[in-house]
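Reply to dn_fold:

You asked what the input looked like. This is it:
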Amino acid sequence: MRVLLVKMSSLGDVVHALPAISDAAAHGVRFDWVVEEAFAAIPRLHPAVDRVLPIGWRRWRSNLRRHVSELSAFRNRLRERRYDLVLDAQGLVKSAAVTSLARGARKAGFSWSSAREPAAALVYDRRIRVAKGQHAIVRLRRLFAQALGYPEPAPDAKPYYGITADREAPGSQLPVADPGTPASDDGPCVLLHGTTWASKHWPLAFWKALALQAGDDGFALALAAGSDPELARSREIAGRASAQIWDRLPLETLVESLSSARVVIGVDSGLAHLAAALGVPTLVIYGSTSSARTGCRGEVVKNLQAEFPCAPCLSRSCAYRGEAVSWQGQEVVPACYSTLPPERVWREAGDLLNADRLLHL
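and this is what came back:
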């Protein structure tokens, strides 16, 4: 069976779809995948994905008239093949528009009550109800199972992402289990501090203290920077320490770099989810977002959720107006992160590394 998957963005959403791809591949399904051009490197790593169709919607939407030739070329490529099923796994109006243009015997997606934007359901032949409030990976695995007609995995079934830093040629066989390689003892401690939500930023003073502790304990440091502000913050976090700064590396290079890490510590971001999917020991800090809904899942992963009256608030900006809380004489903003100070995060990272060693004895 050949399916066109429409799952365009963001990076975390793309990673969350991989276990469902692996489930379907075990039942003989092959995929082409429409994905935002910035994230096209990730679907290419999965052996059940034959063709990737990059879309530049984020770039095009600012001036559709200017990009009319690219839009036309994408439409032509989208319609080159006819599929057994076109599956919209995003549930947005923009993804539904792509689904409507594609050629397929059937078109399926989330139902009115399940889609993030209910109007998206207008274009589907089959509207699948998947309860909200579940983890994103669980929702997608259930959507795929119902759309493709195989048994739903149990909610606690271990996800298999099916990707490594070294993908063989398209059409290679899907492994039946994770290879389970231990963390590299000489790899860096990677700090993923970048995020688009102000409320997800762990305090800068915490990052600096964490970097100092990691350096004192003999770890090499690496910090990812995808923009000028992140580059400046990376340099400030690193301080005088000898640290690698991954300045706007292509996603393909980031996959290789993350795969070589000894441990990854980050906030809730696409790169943190990618590290977990690659099997790297990954510790993720959650404040405003919910680890129950979007927590990283992987072979050796730990999610630390802030324990604060208003957390998780699911808001892009911190609205806390209560009594100020402090750490070593400095006010903590957002306040919920006062329950996840750097000394606790580093201790938990050590426990995670010990668990990884035990796993691979």
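The radius of gyration is 21 Å.
Hope that clears it up.
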